[in-house]
Amino acid sequence: MTAQQEWTGRWVAERAGVGLTGSDRLPELVGLALRENPKRAHLLVSNVLGKHVPQRPSVVHGAGLELGRRVRELLGEEAAARAVVLGYAETATGLGHSVADGLDAPCLHSTRRPVAGVAPLGGFEEEHSHATSHLLLPAHPRLVELLTGDGPLVLVDDEFSTGNTVLNTIRALHARHPRGHYVVVALVDLRDERDRTRLVDLAAELGTRVDLVATAAGGVKLPADILARAQRLIAEAGPAPEPPAAAPAPLARVELAWPTGLPDGGRHGFTTAHRAALDSALPDLAEQVAGQLAGGEERILVLGFEELMYAPLRLAGALADRLGEERVRYSTTTRSPVLAVDDPGYAIRTRLSFPAHDDPQDQASRERFAYNVAPGADPARRFDAVVLVVDDAADTPALHEGERALLTQLRQVTDRVVLAVLPSHRPAGPAAGPAAGLTAVAPGGPVAGSAAGSAAGLPSPLYGPAFSSYRPEEVAWLLKDLSDVPLEAPTEEREEAVQSGGAHYAESLPVEYQPSPEYQELFHQALRVSARRIALAVGTVAETLLRERGPGVVLASLARAGTPVGVLIRRWLAFAHGLDTPHYAVSIIRGRGIDPVAVRYLDAHHHAPDVVFVDGWTGKGAITRELAAALAGSAFNPELAVLADPGRCVRTYGTRDDFLIPSACLNSTVSGLVSRTVLRADLIGPDDFHGAKHYTDLAGGDVSGAFLDTVADHFAQVRDEAQAAAELAAAADRTPDWAGWAAVERISAEYGIDDVNLVKPGVGETTRVMLRRVPWKVLARRGTGADLDHVRLLAAQRGVPVEEVDDLPYSCVGLIHPRYSRGATGASGTAVLVKES
Fold this sequence. Notes:
By secondary structure, the protein is α/β, with parallel strands linked by helices. It is built from 23 helices and 34 strands. A hairpin with a 5-residue loop joins strand 33 and strand 34.
């Protein structure tokens, strides 16, 4: 504050007896106003927060950056690398982001806007706030991991007055996920000695460290009758004057070219990668906005929207870089009702009051406010243009229509209005994930946290490493954990029970076949040879899905063979397009259909047409038919996407060649240590997901991560080729002709097999026969080379004949004969089928 500027707390100080003590910087940082809130009389109005007072964006962002740098210095580089920032809605969302920028850490902010399909990780209340309920809705796995880990947690608010909210948040979070260090960050620290002691005592009680970093510290002197004084002053002031009538200013609307997959803020989590993507996009976004201005405006206000503070702040900064810092100011709308007094010694000079426009059900009961936007009696404070930035969830008729609509009022107080709309981030997966149940409670009562799915009465997904060896962000398993249930039976017993009609193959599990060292080396050799080919197929499928289904796809892989493919497609979309794509593993069982509870879960948490079902390859197309039948009449698209479609029964594929996908060579050790799925009435109830086991005892032979990493290492090499292949696919006729099914019917007739389910065409299905069933013989297309090396090795080990044939549309076909007895054993000691006469 310069010597010529009057302190904007004078009016309240003189009339209500409120005063500031402590740092000489406090009058520079804050003014005073009166709240229309019977619980709390005064409001400290920050001059550097960018909420109530328009300010240069460099000052607003810079205040948070400086605090973040100080936190980084306090933590040290190693601890800072494990830190996560939590900002409090609505006022400190932009500040929390800015602190995270200075710290170079990911961030989350609490929110007062429930989001359909996202269950809260937890919540809390503020006893003195006008709008109290805060929700925690992290949907980014990295944020969930950090919030439930033991790294430093940085809690950011604009002011630290009593500290009740922060202290109760720490107490509740620490009870579930203890950590060794908390850092509380605020622009101003105004606690008295008693409140300072409470923070020290809490740290001692919890056995943790709690530090505080603030721009300035001091106190507030309040008279004993401050509430009565405030109410009297508010009554005397009367309602805020209406702006004078004027011809409405021109209105331009622009949909910002927001990067695909980039969140609009930290409501669901914002990572350092998101920050880098925003930094890259800002110059073009500012150019978009500047193109909607007349060009000669000297005073431009970029007005954010409640919790949407950070994106408008950074946009305002980029616009200031382009047009000149002195021409651009930044502030946001708010939910907090505050008295406006058009006096230079009062912090809130003017007020626009308008109906809520982001929640149609809330419009009749809740007012929203924009402060210091109208010029009032001082024409020098008039803005030549206002750029209102909202997300698309808030771009509703209530924003546009009616005399009191915000846009209507803005057009009365400026010369030009630009409405800039960006997409509201729809989270990529369940909110709670592995951290379900986290609840923060502050005075006023809890808002209970819940696991993802529980809001709809559905079970919660499983995540690695507790279930599977995949990282938690790679896949959410819509399965029931049956790891402690004995389900394995010898292969011959299972085959006899299945073929006799006494049991379904999904009611038990085969004993996991442990390949020999020679076979394991064959897997690694096959992976080295085919990794680039697989990467190209992954990229082709991913790019095709992006073209035809858009960036909002949700992957649902068919457990378990489809799950590594789903992970790879997800990795491609992140690598090539920066997308954070949700991925679930769901069970589908031949003869029983897709898991109906999993389908209900997907429908409850996502837009059904966005869901894409993924598998590794097609054989004769039985699962393709099963999926189509199960989803008939639903809103889900029943089409299957696969890497290889030798059965020629799907439209979305990477190739129709029948080649070795090395993940077919192994069982659980290439599929995250997860078994086949199980459906048995005594284990799976009507509201349970299908079941599966996690084989932790096989971790020593787990190559799941190696398979994924080896293929993904080739993504950069094949990116252009995959995009070109997808472009060709878009123009090609990809209608399935079901040639594979016709071949299976011919083979069944030729070899006297009445049940086509005992004919397993393709390299992948033949491999499964060799590993999990009792094979009779293998038909190999004459001349097929290295793609069948592993099949020949398995056949030799199990004493199974390999018959070379002509005119086979697949590289090979595995046959299971319906009539057999246990008569001979191969060299490996494995039972071999003997055809009965």
